[in-house]
Amino acid sequence: MTPAPAMYEYATPKDHGDLFYQYVIDAQTLGMTDGKDYLQQFGALVTDGAFVMRHWAGLSTMADRLNIYDQDNRRMYSSPAWMGTNSNGLPFAQSVVAPEWSYRDNARVKVDLINVNQATAGVDTGLTIYKSQLVFTGVRRVPFVVSDPVPSGYKFYEKPYQVPYSLSIDRYASIGGILNPALKIEIPVRDYDFELRRIEMELTDFGDPLFKMTLYDTNKYARSNAPVLANMLCHVDPSSLFGAGESSFWPSPPILYRVNSKIVFDVWSLLMSPTALPQTVRLLFHGVRRIPC
Length: 293
Description:
Blueprint: E1 16-26, E2 38-45, E3 50-57, E4 63-69, E5 94-103, E6 108-116, E7 120-124, E8 127-130, E9 133-143, E10 156-169, E11 174-175, E12 178-179, E13 183-188, E14 193-201, E15 211-215, E16 228-229, E17 255-257, E18 262-269, E19 279-292
Antiparallel strand pairs: 1-9, 2-6, 3-5, 3-9, 4-6, 7-8, 10-19, 11-12, 13-18, 14-17, 14-19, 15-16, 15-18
């Protein structure tokens, strides 16, 4: 007797590939006023393929409650959701989306924001620097591409591997009310193909992220539509004061970096004067090497 197939056996549609991706709604570009409600006024435009949402994070940096809308303008929650607190008394700021939600190309990930309360780093010459984002994590579903992690064209076995990096942030977020440019970091991938499965970030005395980052793949394509608060991409101590415990959702799925390519990411400082410069944050890129056999 042939066993019945699993009720929810997962498969990417034929002739499509799934690529790790994050869509960001960033308060730095919105011009919101604290204490107000904003109903479906803001959203992230889905481009270059469909988007499959598997996780969202960042509520505690932006508002008291929210609702999220699907591609057909249907609500995720019956009324705007307040996420409560965890066992450490810290506010939840994230949720897994199960079952996942799909957005067609050119749809918008729209939200309701109730009682906006934006997190900030400070003010410089009239320019407010925000640490306030909603981050939607999942995959871009693109026709005729190979899903992450890209396969290698040879037989191999996996060997756990870590790439440490000491990030030195040598600039403020802005000078004289003008945002500073990003710092570009390039880490060579040597000897073997490397499959990145997560990025760990040490805690700092500041208790919240010191920077935003944009991660690029082995072909130097950005894996987010805008810079992401570091704790929304990197893993941190779940008991930390980032306010949500573990806010990142990685791997979703892993990303392969070919040998002799580079792990590239841009860093936008969130440091404000008179903080001493430089500030150092240790990052650890976890994954596996693919060893030919």
